[in-house]
Structures are given as structure tokens and as C-alpha cells.
Amino acid sequence: MSKFEGVIVSDQWLHCQFTQVELRTLKSKFVSLKNQKGKVTFEDLPPLMVKLKAFRDIYNEDEIRGILGESDENVTKDIDFEAFLRAYLNLQSQVIEKQGSSRRLSSSFLKDSITTLLHTISDSEQGCYVAHINSYLGDDKFLKQFLPLDPATNDLFDLAKDGILLCKLINVAVPGTIDDRAINAKRNLSLWERNENHTLCLNSAKAIGCTVVNIGAQDLVEGRPHLVLGLISQIIKIQLLADLNLKKTPQLVELVDDSQDIEELLSLSPEKVLLKWMNFHLQRGGYQKTVKNFSSDVKDAEAYAYLLNVLAPEHSSPATLDAKDPYERANLVLDHAERMGCKRYLTPRDIAEGSSNLNLAFVAHLFHHRSGLSSDTKNMSFATMMADDVQTSREERCFRLWINSLGISTYVYNLFEDVRNGWILLEVLDKIFPGSVNWKQATKPPIRMPFRKVENCNQVVKIGKHLRFSLVNVAGNDIVQGNKKLILALLWQLMRFTMLQLLKNLRSHSQGREISDADILKWANRKLKSTGRTSHIESFKDKSLSNGLFFLELLSAVEPRVVNWNLVTKGEKDDEKRLNATYIISVARKLGCSIFLLPDDIMEVNQKMILTLTASIMYWSLQQQTEDTDPFPSPAGTATTTTPEASPAPSVCGEDESSSLGGEFSNISVDDATSDTTVSSEGVLVVDDV
Hints:
Blueprint: H1 12-15, H2 20-37, H3 45-49, H4 61-69, H5 81-99, H6 123-137, H7 155-160, H8 164-173, H9 191-207, H10 217-221, H11 225-240, H12 259-267, H13 270-284, H14 302-311, H15 318-322, H16 326-340, H17 348-353, H18 356-369, H19 377-385, H20 390-405, H21 415-418, H22 423-432, H23 450-466, E1 471-472, H24 476-480, H25 484-505, H26 507-510, H27 517-530, H28 549-558, H29 574-591, H30 599-603, H31 607-629, H32 657-662, E2 677-680, E3 685-687
Parallel strand pairs: 1-2
Antiparallel strand pairs: 2-3
């Protein structure tokens, strides 16, 4: 029986400096070194430390040895895991000092994806998030017994420990992301049930665009304030900025003059669209400056006074602009907002201190309630014509969210626009295939010279061909020109390559051989047969998959207690199929699968998305046997398909997957022979049968 335990560190302060994912990874490195040497001394640490991502390319082995030698410790003395962690922190503090600033001093996760040390939490932000939760979840059938929360206490962190609050908040931000039936919602949850909720939460958070790199379910079970607030801030931000695009709000076309400007608008991030909207109204109101950020540029509250006068002139007061003291003006601005029914997220102090997160939330709230944009049907229809077809839009969403889940430094807002300079694609390639990119020959944005973009994209194509992707007559300029079919086909091959490599890396099952789509199909059918079920599919295009029953049986086969069969329908009508498909996605994420498909992908039997779902379930199932033999496994690759803190529930298998699969993985490379995708420069995409 598989059991779930976090890595325990007796020193509470030391324990709090790391997330559980980091502790598990470092523990794995420490145990591996100890197993090799029999004991670990300070003398053994430099060769290990220099290979860790935090210190790679910053220090060499001799420099690390010199830093660790300053501690006056006996270099030949045995050290335990906690001494190893202290040495790690010591070295990390030197890195921060060397770089001149700490990007870990972050009050929220709106920008930073990874945080470990020196956390700071803004009381104003905590109060803002608590008020948001009280407002939007106050009527929730389960949570209303615990609300309203008091921002002056630890109510928020205590309630967040069971995962229900965070799951419900995700559904407020993006309705329908989590099937409520999959949430363990009751007063007294076991550790397993809490962990399942948090695993569901983290995988669902990734599926709406949150960056949760290096956060594990156990971190949230412990209710670590900086991690809880960081995740909440991202979820709320996604909710507030959800409509800041032409698809959701075609009235935004009023902000631009011609079709070329519309293309530029499409490429902007939601925050920049919000700034553009704000400056549009400020210009109309006679404000002479341009607001470029939500911090220093709004500290004096003057921009807010002009903005509110344009949006709600009936509530304006000359005293606001006449006020000489910025704090007094901020007070008057919020009085104006209150008369509009829009006073939320901010206090005068937050404005005066330039709190970027809270100012952004306030302006987004204004946009939702009073956009001040016209309803010119001619312009709106023109904006609507520029939208992608449903299938293209769905695939764009999937690949965008997948890229953002990898934890690369650049966040993707508009896939087709953001990848055209090649930089993001190079980041993705370097993440999934480390060392493949020659960064000396790459140009980082902003890129003004078009040929530099072509150079970046040429390198992308060159690496893709080296990885044996099918790129027939494709050149870098095709990506620069924004060929959507080609971009989608390239990203599908990247995603599929990553997926197959993760499965291959479970060497105890594949003996290090390549894995093909056919192997995944064979595994799924074998798994069902081993548990006495008769369901069988011929390919990932099998129309019988549309009712969802095959995947529910597969999930039940890898973890019998994860599916509640009382909630499953026969899948005969469309509404029954949708219920099953929605439940499948949430159950898979609850199990530990990181997936980005939608219920429609299952109902319509989208071959690519069906393959990713099956492979994710397979990876989780095989990984359980690996974890049972390794008490401190390291995350399998940088682009892991599952939250490292996977479901702790016991995995009951009907057969020994290792022996049944080991000799049957076909030794075929990820090349033209196995790739089910062929791409040409004309953008033709051909998907073959499995």
C-alpha cells in the first residue's frame, strides 16, 4: 500500500524555508549521495551543489568549496540532511548578494513563479483577498458556515488547509473548471482527502493559467501563508482580467483606429490592455500624462480623479482635483468610487504606497462595472471576424496553458503572437531538452530587427529537426509570419515528445526504450482487461470514447476508490456525456494528472487530447510503483506531467505493469516513423491513425 508523507525537518524555521517539492528533491539528492559514499561530508557537497539549478552557471566547484569552507566546519565530519539544507541556504544567500537583489522578496505571485526565502506578506493584500472571498463565496452551500472570514486572524489559512476553499475559488475565477462532485467536501477530512483536494486544486490552477512551479499539495495542507496568498492572488487576478480581450469584450476595439492596431491589441497582455483602456479615458478627460504602471504612476491619485470623472461625471466633485495632499485626494477618489458602487480592493494608504496588485484589481473592477466603451456594432463585428475558429481556439488554449505550466521565465498570453519572435519556443525547448539551445545565437525580446526573429525561429526549426520532428519544408520565417496551423502542429510535437520522454524516463517499466502512441493504447486496454473489464478501444479516435465510460473505467482501474460510480451517467445523451467528461477531467486532476483538455475534447473525441489524457493516467499509474520503491523520489523531469505531491491513496493494480510492459515497448524513435503529425510550410496538418 502506497502511503503519503511529506519530508519532515525537525527545525521548524528550517522547514519553513522550503516547499515540500524542494524538500523532496533535495532529500533525493542527499540520499543518492549518501548511498554512493556511505556518508556525506562538507567535502562531498561542491560536486553536488554545482549541478543544482540554483547554482549552475553562477559558481564553479572551487568557488562553492570556498564559500562552504568559510563556515569553519570540519570538512571531513559527517553531516545530516538538516546540515545539508543549511549549507544550501548559505550558498543561496551568497547568490542573492552576488546578484544584487532578491527576487524572492515578493508580496505576491503575480510575477514570481518560484519562491522560497524571505517571504513578505502585505496585510492590505491579505485583507483584500479575504474581502473578495467573503463577497464571492459567501453564499456557497458548504463554505457559508465558515464565512465571513476575519482578515486580522489566521481564518483564511486555517480554512484553506482542506483545499475546499481554493477549489471553489478557482470555479469562481473560471466557472466549470472543477466538477464540484470531485471535491471532498465535508467537515472532517482525512489527510488523504485533503491531499486529493489540493492535488485537484493545483492541477486545476495550472489549467486556468496559474504558475505553481515548486508548490506541492503538502505545502497547502500545512497552510503556508505565503504560498496560500500567492496562489489566491493569481486566481483572483485571472478572474478580474478574464474579460480583457476582444473575444470576451469586442467593445475594446474602440481603443484602436485601424486593423493594424487591432492586431497589436490582440498581442497585448491583459494588464497592458487595462492600461490602454485607462489611458484612453484619461486622454478623453484631459489628463496630460500617460499611466505606464499600477504603482508609481497612480500614487498621487490624480489619474484616478480624472478617470472617475470620465466614467461617472454625475458623482464627480471639484474638491478631488483641488486637493493638494495626495492622501486626501486618495480618500476623495475612493468616496467617488463608493458612490459608483465600485469601492473595492483599495484603501487610501494602498494608493499612496503604490500597491501594484491592489491598484490593478481596483482598475479591473472599474472596467467590469463601467467600461465607458460604446456598442458600435460595425466595429464590434469587425473584431469578432478576427477571432479564431473553435478548434484552433481550443488548441491555442491547451498549448498556452501547457507552456505556462512549465515554469519558463516568459508568460504566454496570446500564443500565436507571443511565439512569433522565437524566444518562447527556445525557452520551451531548453526546458524539455536541456542544453539544446545555443543562447549565444539567440536574441532576447524586445527584438526590433526582423532578421533576429527569423534567426531565433530558424534555431527552433533546427532543434526540432534534430529531435526528429516532422517539419517538411518549414523555415523560421513561417513561424515569424504567424502561420497558425504550423505553430499548432509544432507545439503538438513538442508536447507529445515531452509526454513520451516522461514515460520513457520511468526506466523500470520501459528499460529506457522509446515509447510510441501504440504502446500507450496497448497499456490502457491491458489495464482494463487486467481488472476484469471488457471495454476496449481500437485507436484514440474510437467514437465509443465520447460517452466517457472507458476513461472512468481506466481511472478506476489505476485507483479503484477515485471514481464514485453513483455519479456516473450512461453517456447516451449529450448532457450525460458532458457530465461524464467534466467528471473525468476533475477526477484525473484529483489523482495527480496535469491535463489541459476540455469536456468538448472528450465528447468530440479529439485524438490529440485523448492521447494526452491516456498518457497522463499511464504516467501516474507507472509512477506509483516507482515511488513505492523509492522513499524520496525526485520529480521526473522538469516538465512533469503530474503534480509531484500526487494522490496519496493506495494504488491497486490487477497485474505487474513492469513485467507486462517491459518487453513490449517498441524501440522506435520520436521521428517521422512514429510521429502522427506531419507539418509542411503550407501549414497542412495530417494526423495518422494510431
